[in-house]
Specification:
It contains 23 helices and no strands. With 429 residues, the chain is mostly helical. The two termini are 35 Å apart.
């Protein structure tokens, strides 16, 4: 059964089938060819993959992000970011990074960041004199901060797949790596701006102007504080927090920015429904594929192979990082989490690696994969939005990709980057 499964999976990827169909068809065909199991297990496993109360957080977080975007929050975030870092060399690039860091506390999705603020930031950078492909590359790179800083859809899926970690623990574990990712991209942008002669966006603003921009952005900035504060305070679970986020987004759009109306809300609901449907189809078929991998004892085989190479936890993490990075070149993020975590997760226990550090290394690695061709989803979005050649965009993103890989290496080398903040709030996993 193993050979047909992987051959059909590889063929599906090569001919360009949607990843959900690739996983579902290859798993069902492998079961049919083997003949030892009833094909009734296919719909059962597909249904079990999405029959989960915590998974309800995914559509709610998607809806909350879409509502906040429709409320016109991007302008307020851009103005606040510009008041803080617009006067630094390469200022509009720094504004791009800081806006993405702030928006990450709302969206939880790299694709939402790329299609929303990312497209606006790219056009603003072009107007400020930045080269077009670099503007798109930086917008793509900063979009990957979205799934790292909480809330994060990928972290919700990871926690559902691996019982060693909790959603709240993972949310807290993402704070420092997310901020470090922003700092690394700012450093890379500054270096590139100096080399290419990009200037500043504006002169340094006074504190009254900065305070005014902060006041305008406060309703938006309060959302991640409400989500994380409510979870840590025991007011609601992560799933309930996602519903609270939707109601707060509605409140902001209806009574603060006053840009939402019945027609726009209906449009947002339809858009969020389509995105959620696509995500849950991937989750359901990936669950079937992951179940089959477990049945074939693939996790045990990989763990044994790595154990024969080394018993050093650091080397194990580096090997896993290389393996996940290669997988991320060909498999999209959500299915990769569901497929790889059951395979690799047991290594954390076997080699005494802190579960939160292991999880954060995998999540960060797969998120970086969203800007690596040939299956870099964020690159495709930016190339489509800006009508750019994908090959040139992929080359333009390479220095920024290098900066993100340095952050991944730091997360692997220093466990405290992932475990310190969760430990402060009593979360060991």
């Amino acid at each position: 059964m193993t050979t047909p499964l992987f051959v059909l999976f590889a063929v599906g990827l090569v001919i360009g089938l949607p990843i959900a169909f690739v996983m579902g068809v290859s798993a069902a065909a492998a079961l049919a060819l083997d003949g030892k199991f009833s094909l009734l297990s296919v719909p059962q496993r597909i249904f079990d993959g999405i029959n989960s109360f915590p998974l309800m957080a995914v559509p709610f977080f998607i809806l909350a992000a879409d509502l906040m975007t429709a409320s016109g929050i991007t302008t307020a975030l851009l103005r606040f970011s510009q008041s803080i870092v617009g006067h630094i060399r390469g200022g509009m690039g720094h504004v791009n990074v800081l806006t993405s860091v702030l928006f990450a506390g709302i969206s939880g999705s790299a694709l939402a960041d790329a299609a929303g603020p990312g497209a606006i930031e790219m056009r603003m950078m072009e107007k400020a004199g930045y080269e077009r492909y670099y503007s798109a590359a930086l917008s793509a790179a900063t979009a990957t901060i979205g799934p790292i800083i909480p809330p994060s859809i990928i972290m919700v899926i990871y926690a559902l797949t691996d019982s060693r970690v909790t959603v709240a623990g993972l949310f807290l574990a993402g704070v420092l790596p997310g901020l470090l990712l922003g700092a690394a991209l700012m450093a890379a942008n500054h270096w590139i701006s100096v080399r290419r002669g990009y200037g500043i966006t504006q002169h340094r603003l006074g504190w009254p102007e900065r305070f005014a921009s902060l006041v305008r952005a406060l309703p938006i900035l309060a959302m991640p504080a409400i989500i994380i504060g409510g979870i840590l305070g025991g007011l609601f679970t992560p799933t309930e927090a996602s519903a609270v986020a939707v109601f707060y987004a509605l409140f902001v759009g209806l009574f603060v920015t006053r840009t939402l109306n019945a027609r726009l809300i209906a449009k947002v609901l339809l858009q969020s429904g389509l995105v959620t449907s696509a995500a849950l189809i991937i989750v359901s078929t990936a669950s079937l594929f992951a179940w089959l991998l477990t049945l074939l004892q693939i996790p045990q085989t990989i763990a044994a192979s790595i154990g024969q190479m080394t018993t050093d936890p650091l080397l194990v993490l580096l090997i896993v990082a290389g393996f996940v990075l290669v997988c991320g070149l060909f498999i999209d993020t959500l299915p990769a989490v569901i497929i790889l975590v059951p395979v690799l997760g047991p290594l954390a226990d076997q080699f005494s690696i802190p579960p939160l550090q292991f999880a954060m290394a995998v999540v960060l690695n797969l998120t970086i994969g969203m800007i690596t061709p040939p299956v870099g989803a964020v690159l495709f979005v930016m190339a489509s939005v800006a009508r750019l050649r994908l090959d040139r965009l992929a080359r333009a993103v390479l220095p920024l990709l290098a900066a993100e890989l340095v952050v991944l290496l730091l997360v692997i080398l220093f466990p405290a980057l992932s475990t310190a903040i969760p430990a402060m709030f009593g979360y060991s996993r």
